[in-house]
Design a protein that fits this description.
Layout (H helix, E strand, L loop, with lengths): L31 H15 L5 E6 L6 H14 L5 E6 L5 H13 L3 H19 L3 H11 L5 H8 L3 H16 L2 H9 L6 H8 L6 H4 L10 H16 L5 E6 L13 H17 L1 E7 L1 H5 L3 H4 L5 E3 L5 H13 L13 H11 L3 H13 L11 H14 L4 H10 L4 E7 L7 E7 L6 E7 L5 H17 L4 E6 L5 H11 L4 E2 L5 H14 L6 H48 L16 H30 L5 H12 L3 H29 L8 H18 L4 H9 L9 H4 L6 H6 L1 H10 L1 H8 L1
Parallel strand pairs: 1-4, 1-5, 2-3, 3-4, 8-9, 9-10
Antiparallel strand pairs: 6-7, 7-8
Helix pairs in contact: 1-2, 3-11, 4-5, 4-7, 4-11, 7-8, 8-9, 11-12, 15-16, 17-18, 19-22, 20-21, 23-25, 23-26, 24-25, 24-26, 24-31, 26-27, 26-28, 27-31, 31-32
């Protein structure tokens, strides 16, 4: 008897590689960038003590951190293992970089202490020299078999003199007396906290001030000297290390060029790291390398460009992860090709998002499933939103905005409908303009895009001079991103856990800055630019609408011709060989209805033609008038109703002709009347489900631009769609079965 499977083993980690954690190289996706970097690092591991400096550049989410994780995984598997340190830069100065570096090193501070002890052992061995004690203990001291601190204590040697010599050597190494003194103090108990705090950029404690360390490491040059000293000390015993500095675009910026002193210190830092035996990875956006001074850049070795994961890379990641499950009976099912494509689209090829979403896909899959398909995507994406952002996202956004000192109004409605809800309104200094922040969870499929499009158009209608920023808590499909960017004029902001406050503050600050120009002319210019941007967005929407209507009309005509050709038998011939038609009065009713519909579509054509053919003198007014008409939400829907009615009336006419050709006076009161009743009732039911009132609105919206000032008079010529189309079947039936029909049969 087979035991039911309790669940799948999940080969994807629950916490993706967001902080440079090691990645098993056997399970890694070997993109061209990863393959090149791995080959360079492998050569470093197999070679001598000479180090290397590698630059890794690429856009956001292109796998720079993932590449660093693969190298760290290789370092862990090396024999002997190579220590690796990952420092995520979060500051614009090297003082901040020092803090990140020291925190990374302190997680394995024993390596620093071991390096200082090694240097101290060399000092003691040199001091003992050719004495009997030196010849006996010197080799063991230099080989690391004896602890120099313990030896000096037991042998009651001149500890003070040896420590002073060590400090002198460290000062020669670091070119900074304070750093040399601090590192020497690591050999003595009770000084660790004070030393590490000061090395990380803090103020010196009293025990350090007593030893002539009077100030913090306040300059970028001092920070670089401290990092160089730590690397040299760690590598002193002949140890190789891997060191990664990530997100360096924050430090190397065009608006903050390095001083000559900092440039010199940076050049010396890289040289000392290479000479000590460190493999240094400098990672960041392409801009970081462009802002590195020329006389420093030559110290950097190969440069590797990363790119997002492609579907084939994702498939490789899934396959190797599944194969790595020890008990293959519990391995998750394969991902369908559509799921792989969706992963590539939703994550934009960002490795950590791919792993994160894959983990949730497996977790949401039931044991009996044989293939993970598209149905699981939405469930996994929703789980991502709930777990990554939780119920406190709105509060996090509100706090990030208010901390900037802005006037924030949550849950504002700019209209009467639910779609007019604005999650956060941030007013500019005058209060008349501002930024409307709309929050969405996931924007994955067409329904999600349509929902956000309706919100954006409704909010634009209520805030004609405001700016709109869409914030997506979860995943945003790339196709949806392009469309929503066209609608709002700026890319939606996808919230990253831990970064939403910083990213949102920067984006909103840029939006509000456009409202706050001190020069009145510049301020008006900014407003005109925004208006032009909105008009350009609307122009694109109009073009799409016109194309869709044209395609709909073509499809309608083609489909109708096919129906007539396949289903309608040859029309019965009259006595003189002419086709049989409905009575003239009925044909006139149907012709009138079709004429009204054709006239409405003709007005739409004229609307676009007038807008596109307007001369330069009237172009701006014409665009504004076009925008005002098309922003009304029922415009596109009404155009669709026109097309549906055309098809419905055409089909109704053909069925009536078939019935009329077969109808005879003898059967008029029997079966044929019931058939006619069914036809007319079907038509009437179809009309009940069509919003016919929108046709009058479409007539009003499509008034000629020349008649802009006369829009109110257009209301007096409404077509009364409900009467014309809704009662059409009843009027037709009366004409075909009433007294007029009886008199016609009698003749």
């Amino acid at each position: 008897m087979t035991t039911p499977q309790a669940g799948f083993a999940n080969p994807f980690p629950s916490t993706a590689n967001a902080s440079g954690q090691p990645v098993d190289p056997d399970l890694a996706v070997h993109t061209p960038a990863v393959t090149t970097a791995a080959a360079l690092f492998d050569a470093f591991l197999r070679g001598g003590q000479q180090g290397e400096v590698l630059a890794v550049i690429g856009g956001a989410g292109t796998g720079k951190t993932y590449l660093s994780g693969v190298l760290r995984g290789m370092a862990d598997q090396a024999q002997p293992p190579v220590r690796s340190f990952y420092a995520q830069v979060s500051a614009t100065s090297f003082q901040g970089v020092l803090g990140s570096f020291v925190r990374a090193v302190k997680r394995d501070e024993s390596t620093v202490r071991a390096g200082v002890r090694h240097l101290f052992a060399q000092v003691v061995a040199d001091a003992l020299g050719d004495s009997d004690l030196g010849r006996h203990l010197g080799p063991e001291l230099r080989g690391g078999k004896l602890d120099p601190v313990t030896l000096v204590q037991r042998m009651r040697l001149d500890r003070g003199a040896y420590l002073e010599t060590l400090t002198t050597r460290l000062e020669q190494l670091t070119d900074h007396p304070g750093i040399a003194t601090a590192l020497t103090l690591l050999l003595r108990p009770g000084f660790d906290h004070a030393v590490w705090t000061w090395l990380a950029g803090g103020e010196p404690a009293g025990v350090l001030r007593d030893r002539r360390i009077a100030a913090a490491l306040e300059s970028d040059a001092d920070a670089l000297r401290a990092m160089g000293a730590l690397i040299s000390v760690i590598c002193a015993p002949g140890r190789k290390i891997l060191l990664t500095f990530d997100e360096l675009e924050r430090t190397f910026r065009a608006d903050r060029p390095l001083t000559e002193e900092t440039t010199t210190a940076l050049r010396r830092f890289l040289a000392s790291a290479v000479n000590a035996g460190a493999f240094v990875v400098l990672s960041g956006f392409t801009s970081f390398l462009e802002n590195v001074p020329e006389d420093v850049r030559y110290r950097i070795g190969p440069t590797i460009q990363t790119s997002p994961f492609q579907p084939e890379d994702i498939q490789q990641l899934v396959n190797t992860s599944r194969e790595a499950v020890r008990d293959q009976a519990t391995a998750p099912p394969p991902f369908s090709p559509k799921v792989v494509e969706h992963l590539a689209d939703l994550t934009a090829g960002v490795p950590r998002l791919i792993v994160d979403l894959s983990h949730r896909l497996v977790r949401a899959t039931r044991p009996a499933t044989t293939t993970i398909d598209e149905a699981a995507i939405e469930t996994a994406a929703q789980a991502y939103v709930e777990e990554r952002h939780g119920a406190y996202f709105a509060e996090e956004v509100r706090r990030a905005l208010t901390e900037q000192g802005w006037k924030v109004e949550p849950n504002r409605y700019v209209g009467l409908s639910q779609d007019s809800h604005v999650d956060f309104w941030v007013a500019d200094t005058d209060g008349g303009e501002g930024c409307a922040i709309l929050v969405a969870e996931n924007v994955i499929g067409a329904a999600d895009v349509n929902r956000q499009r309706d919100r954006i158009f409704t909010v634009k209608e209520g805030l004609p001079t405001g700016e709109i920023l869409l914030v997506v808590k979860g995943f945003l499909a790339q196709g949806a991103e392009r469309e929503l960017t066209d609608l709002t004029g700026r890319r939606p902001l996808v919230a990253q856990p831990g970064r939403i406050g910083r990213d949102l503050g920067r984006t909103v600050r840029a939006i509000l800055a456009s409202f706050e120009a001190h020069d009145p002319v510049e301020r008006v210019g900014n407003r005109l630019d925004r208006l032009g941007q909105h008009q350009a967005t609307m122009h694109g929407y109009v073009a799409q609408l016109a194309l869709s209507m044209n395609e709909l009309r073509t499809a309608n005509e083609k489909h109708l011709a096919e129906i007539i050709g396949r289903l309608q038998p040859p029309e019965p011939q009259g006595a003189q060989g002419t086709p049989a038609h409905l009575p003239p009065a009925v044909e006139a009713m149907l012709d009138d209805a079709q004429h009204v519909l054709a006239e409405l579509l003709g007005r739409v054509d004229t609307l676009f033609t007038d807008a596109l053919h307007a001369g330069p003198d009237r172009a701006r007014d014409t665009r504004m008038a076009l925008r005002a008409r098309l922003r009304q939400r029922n415009t596109a829907a009404a155009a669709g109703v026109v097309a549906l009615l055309q098809r419905l009336i055409a089909a109704f006419r053909e069925e009536l002709r078939l019935w009329y050709a077969e109808e005879s006076p003898a059967g008029a009161a029997g079966r044929d009347t019931r058939t006619l009743d069914a036809l007319c009732q079907t038509y009437s039911v179809a009309c009940e489900y069509l919003p016919l009132f929108q046709l009058d609105e479409l007539r009003h919206v499509t008034a000629r631009f020349a008649d802009v000032d006369d829009l109110p008079t257009e209301r007096t010529t409404e077509i009364r769609a409900s009467e014309l189309f809704g009662n059409l079947a009843g009027r037709v039936q009366t004409e075909l079965t009433g007294p007029t029909a009886m008199r016609r049969r009698a003749t």
